Amino acid sequence: MTVSKAEPVLVHKGKASYYADFFDGRRTASGERFSQRKLTAASRTLPLGSRVLVTNADNGRSVEVVINDRGPYVKGRVIDLSKMAARELDMIEEGVVNVRVEARTDSKPVFPRNRRPREEAPAPMVAELPPLPGAEEAGDGVPALPVAADFPIEFPELGASEDRMAEAQ
């Protein structure tokens, strides 16, 4: 990926690590399942779906990844990579390396096939419910709820019924 100097770029410098195998198959913050075999990464600050270029500062190798999760939550680390991305950067042996992360500000986010951004989500469906049997409308067009009982309700734990409580007031 070649980035022109005129194109606005966000740059993070810091340490990168890669996900443990334990996370393979678990859900990411974007909703898709994490796979060690994809070129993906986690960032605390970059938007989900962003394409970023990660460069290993020690050997100059680079890889383009898609941000699909949040993290890392270790001080000094700026990105967590999938194992496939870590292999591309030749950092498997070291585990943690110094990197430069470049994100274009004009790039359109990439989303999994089964997910879409919230702005494009369909409007919620609203169902019309039939009126309750026995419900009568009060003059405002809103049906009144039917009364459950016309007899005093006992509250044995309080030691008094509704009627006795009303008489006491």
UniProtKB/TrEMBL annotation:
It comes from the Bacteria. Its EC number is 4.2.2.-. It holds the Pfam family DPBB_1. Gene3D superfamilies: RlpA-like domain. It is an enzyme of class 4 (lyase). InterPro entries: RlpA, RlpA-like_DPBB, RlpA-like_sf, RplA. Residues 13-101 form the RlpA-like protein double-psi beta-barrel domain. SUPFAM superfamilies: Barwin-like endoglucanases. Keywords: Cell wall biogenesis/degradation, Hydrolase, Lipoprotein, Lyase. GO terms for molecular function: hydrolase activity. Residues 108-143 are annotated as: Disordered. Belongs to the RlpA family. Lytic transglycosylase with a strong preference for naked glycan strands that lack stem peptides. This is Endolytic peptidoglycan transglycosylase RlpA. It comes from Azospirillum rugosum. The lineage of its organism: Bacteria, Pseudomonadati, Pseudomonadota, Alphaproteobacteria, Rhodospirillales. The gene is rlpA.
